[in-house]
Amino acid sequence: MDDALRENKMGTMPVGRLLISMSLPMIVSMLVQALYNVVDSYFVGKISLEALTAVGQAFSAQNLMIGIATGTGVGVNALLSKSLGEKNPDRANRIAHNGVLLAGVGYLIMLLFGLFGCELYFDGMLRAASFDAGLDLAAVKASGIEYLRICTLLSVFVFFEIMFERLMQSTGRTIYSMFTQGAGALVNIALDPFFILGELPFGLHGLGLGAAGAAWATVLGQAVGCILGILLNHKFNPEIRLHLRGFRPDAKLIGSIYAIGVPSIIMVAVGSVMYYAMNIILMGVSAYGASIFGVYFKLQSFVFMPLFGMNNGVIPIIAYNYGAGNRRRMLKTVKLALLVALGFMGLGLVLMQTIPGALLSLFIKEKAVVALGCTALRIISLSFLFAGICIVFSSVFQALGKGSYSMFVSIARQLLVLVPVAYLLALAGDLNLIWWSYPIAEIASVTVSFCLFARLYKKIISKIPLGAE
Fold this sequence. Notes:
Layout (H helix, E strand, L loop, with lengths): L2 H10 L2 H31 L3 H9 L1 H27 L3 H28 L1 H9 L10 H17 L2 H15 L3 H23 L14 H26 L14 H35 L1 H38 L2 H28 L1 H6 L5 H14 L3 H16 L3 H24 L4 H4 L2 H23 L10
Helix pairs in contact: 2-9, 2-12, 3-7, 3-12, 4-5, 4-8, 4-11, 4-12, 5-7, 5-8, 6-7, 7-10, 8-9, 8-10, 9-10, 11-12, 11-17, 12-13, 12-15, 12-16, 13-15, 13-16, 16-17, 16-19, 17-19
């Protein structure tokens, strides 16, 4: 794609059509990603509630791993798109080279965690359950360590898969990101029953590895996505040419990448801390609460993951037009993104209000636990519309180089409001009260987001030339 064609797409194509072309492939791929997360838990749930709980409790560590990879990618994406908007292809290539290097550094961090941190991680979470939990906690710990260790030790594939996807997104080729994520997810889904279960339909036999089988299926799917991402970049992404010969790390560019990316990483890290803390709080009231919480996070991915996919398309559009000095297109992108976000979140709200039992029964066999979970889903989903607005504003902040705003909102929501409120409500000993911490936190979060966007509009956006539509 030459410069003229790029400008036609990112700078002059009607914003609605551009948002669809940039976001739809990512929305589809994220839906497939959400599907394989749910399929993992569906088959693990057939083993036992302990195995299902173990996979759920591994989420915060896995989330941190993905956060390091995607946060670095956010910095690369925003800087690379802006450089292309400024017609500076040499700088764009140097950004890409340093981004690939940083993906390798991220893997080394998780490799060390996998070798030395998994047991400590589960010990800290399960120690809160000092009563008759109703679950075999030793089995939860053993399954969880096995699952998480496989995912972290072999996380090299997910780090490079995400980085090469971001390189394609930065140049407007989101369709290829859909191919990489979709292929990896489909491999994962296909392998899940064979690796997890011992007995399969039609008299077939699987490996029966339980939670560990889910981890192996995940890693193999990531490997396929990684290899495909590298090949597609090499063949179809001419703006980015990676050559190891003569490459030297650029401290200034790395600093610029992380000036945008670190706040995103911290946001995810804050989410991981929140999830870990919430599990400890829930285990102190009911171990079944922790099981429900894990299933909720799998289900809500169907609502949130497509929205994150849309935002992966929104960031380069806003960043490009910021670099090109076109306020009109920037604001139109924000308005359309908010409408789409409210649509996704509204659909999720309706589903969790009307059929929570059917959703939970896909994973949990115990009727009493499903009944507890129905109340949880109905209460938590009241926060969805507020959350959708906050996610779009977060992408705007990142695209304009103000990732620290997103970080502040995330910290305020999850650590300053959600966890403390959940802890205080848990003192009453009523599991159902704890779930109200979610709507309370999201109302606080959307209020702060509006204030920060107004500040950003006054200081930066209003001073950008109006530009053509």
